[in-house]
Amino acid sequence: MNILLIGLGGREHALAWAISNSPLLTKLFAAPGNAGIASLAELVDLDASDHGAVIGFCKNNDIGLVVVGPEGPLVDGLVDDLAQAGIKAFGPGKAAAQLEGSKGFTKAVCDEASIPTAAYQRFENAADAKVYIEQQGAPIVVKADGLAAGKGVVVAETVETAMNAVDACFDGKFGSAGAAVVIEEFLTGEEASFFVLSDGDHALPLATAQDHKRAFDGDEGPNTGGMGAYSPAPVMTDTIVEQTMQDIIFPTIKALKDRGTPFKGVLFAGLMITADGPKLIEYNTRFGDPECQVLMMRLKDDIVTLMLASVDGTLDKVSARWRDEAALTVVMAAKGYPGTYDKGTHIAGLEDAAASPHVEIFHAGTREQDGAILANGGRVLNVTTLGTTVEEAQQRAYAAIDKIRWPEGFYRTDIGWRAIATGAK
Ligand code: AMP
Ligand code: GLY
Fold first, then answer.
1. For a substitution probing ligand 2, which of 211, 212, 224, 287 has the most ligand atoms within 8 Å of its CB?
2. Is 165 helix (H, G, I), strand (E, B) or coil?
């Protein structure tokens, strides 16, 4: 089967790597891809927002499955339009992708299905939001309602910070994502990422991971898209996973089905494991980046078979098995990220680093020029490893990074610290 992968990040390189190992694959195309994906797929210059062009490409190239990596095209209805044209596409349709596209929508589903989550209110003007913040006090969490690339959330320690966040939201900092604001109760506990596949009816638990959202060591600095991850997450014990399935995942799948907009694809639950059990912080409707990189390292079964089962409604007939080893990924980012940074800087030593055993280097923002690899984004590389313990995986990742020569880049030196501190396997 020919497969078209949409996206250009480290998540998509990891997906391309897993898809390349599928016995079902004939040829892989990626749009637009990056310099790493280019070694596994033919890159095509397709604009994912031009659904007609994507459909035309699929028809001309006998594409049997489209894999949509990022949330943008999902929320934009690409999967619906492909399905209408008779082309199989992995991921939710526009209506079900609202679980990621609108925090207000997810909160409404939580209310309807009694899913444990932070108490909240949604406001369409700053004055009402501020009155509520005064009443509730700090700490409190302020979120732009729509898609804001992970940057629309302020965990405010003081009422003043919360008020400023409300103003920033309504002042247009997040564009249309800031037309409404969700104010939430601050949850305490340990965060974890949990991934499930669904075909609209069934839910197949995949694996757990932990991300590192802050830019700098010690969980300091601004929030980013994610600076590193590992899998599994020790905090997600079998009991907590079971509780999450019963209290959060199954009710969500049922609620979406009952609404007539069944959820198909990857459901990524961002959880806070509180003293009262797991609570939903947010849903994403795609694989996490960089969580996908560690999941693909650990997946033993064929990803394409799993994706097709999600599209075809046969998830009850397949299983997903995982390596016992821990996987860990360290993100190398351009200095300045998540703020402004330079593009076009030169990266050397990648072949040497990738030759280390148990190491895969997934590219995120890179491009090739005259045989050289140049940085082309904020998050640029994901140095990803397997180890018998998180600590071993961590050592392997940093040993590989030592071989990469990129003075204009930076990375956290403590990815995996929480698991290592608890002595997790
Ligand atoms: P989100 O984009 O909703 O995942 O939020 C980004 C980050 O903000 C999360 O990963 C948490 O670290 C933090 N956060 C979001 N909501 C809450 C909450 N209700 N309580 C505590 N922290 C939160
Ligand atoms: N790493 C978090 C995300 O992909 O949203």
1. 211
2. helix
